[in-house]
Specification:
71 residues, two-stranded antiparallel sheet, mainly beta
Amino acid sequence: LNWGYCDQNSRSTIVYTIQIFVGSSIDSGTNSNVKIRILGDQGATNDLVLSANGFETMAIKSIDLESIDVG
């Protein structure tokens, strides 16, 4: 397995749908940047930003992100 970054110039892209469910506990949200890195059998994406402002308590979000296909 290659867990390094994929060469983004030579790879096809795909749309990933990320679903976020934040808990209901006090202070379970965040005001920070939230990022994700997707790992696959053909490598990994760079960090993808889910939110620059964080997520509130009990937030439910579905976010589509286009990036390289990592398998």
